[in-house]
Amino acid sequence: MKIIGLDVGSKTIGIAVSDAFGWTAQGLTTIKWDEQELHSADEQLEKILKEHEIEKAVIGLPKNMNNTIGERGKASQKYAKHIEETHKIPTILWDERLTTIAAERVLLQADVSRKKRKKVIDKMAAVMILQGYLDQQN
């Protein structure tokens, strides 16, 4: 079963997909979207879901450090419900605290330029979200 990992921001959605065995996550792309219009990424996402035969989505849930759910977390919960209703696949909300910071650190250590980091940070965060989930399952 292949799983998609999503790092949902207000302007972009980072996307990663698992291998068929559910062992590894690979960064796929970043979709530009408008958070105010939930359907704005549906067409692109549907194409990816079909192309990769996705059966489940893991969506990053940004919690506050004190474990509460803030505005960004509520937006992720809303988008997870939208994915289930629109694309008819189950979703799992995954605690993504510090994944963007960790992704930034990895890219800095790899000496990726600021311009290039900006382009891949969301995709890298999606990989970390999905890989965290896969590691816990295996």
Q: What does this protein structure show overall?
A:
Residues 1-103 form the YqgF/RNase H-like domain. One of its GO terms (molecular function) is hydrolase activity, acting on ester bonds. It is built from four helices and five strands. With 138 residues, it is of the alpha/beta class. The chain has one domain (2-137): 2-Layer Sandwich (Nucleotidyltransferase, domain 5). A five-stranded mixed sheet has the order 3-2-1-4-5, with helices on both faces. The protein is globular.
Oligomer: single chain
Radius of gyration using CA atoms only: 14 Å
Q: According to CATH, what is the class?
A: Alpha Beta
What's the SSE pattern? EEEHEHEHH
**Which descriptor suits the 3D outline?**
globular
CATH fold assignment: Nucleotidyltransferase, domain 5
Query: Spans of 5+ residues with little confidence (pLDDT < 50)?
Result: none
How many separate helices? 4
Enzyme class: hydrolase
Protein name: Putative pre-16S rRNA nuclease
Keywords: Cytoplasm, Hydrolase, Nuclease, Ribosome biogenesis
Main location: cytoplasm
Quick synopsis:
The protein has 138 residues and is α/β, with parallel strands linked by helices. It has helices spanning 42-51, 71-87, 99-109, 114-137; strands at 2-8, 12-18, 25-32, 54-61, 91-95. A five-stranded mixed β-sheet has the order 3-2-1-4-5, sandwiched between helices.
List the topology elements.
Elements: E1 2-8, E2 12-18, E3 25-32, H1 42-51, E4 54-61, H2 71-87, E5 91-95, H3 99-109, H4 114-137
Function: Could be a nuclease involved in processing of the 5'-end of pre-16S rRNA.
Keywords: Cytoplasm, Hydrolase, Nuclease, Ribosome biogenesis
GO molecular function, one term: nuclease activity
